[in-house]
Amino acid sequence: MRHVTLEQPTSARLLADDDQELAVTATLRYSSGDPFAVQLLFPAWISLDGKKVTWTFARALLEEGLATPAGMGNVHIRPYGPAHTAVEFHSPEGIAMIRFDTVALHHFLRRTYRVTEPGREALEPSLDRGLASLLDGA
User: Which domains occur in the chain, in start order?
Assistant: First the structure.
């Protein structure tokens, strides 16, 4: 099976505690090989250790967070005014908040749906076989 990967660079703003904003380009990524997840990739200069940063979270979380506050654990997503969406990343070092144009996130999500419709995400064939063998005796 051939996997499809989508990438969409998008402008964003890193929101600092002192009400300062820093422009950053993040890359949204989706792969049909991991159909339940999306990734946000950030350039090395934005991280404390000078390394590229990738955050992976549920595609359903992105969808939910565009309409209403959503998330638990390390990633929280919520509307931020009428035209923006805030994504918060929680780590031991603290919280980073990135503001995106909601239109760009909707566009990316629609593109992922053209690759894999919600509810049609297939589990890996090996997982399917494993579950089938477990349930065969039931």
Answer: 5-136 (2.30.31.20)
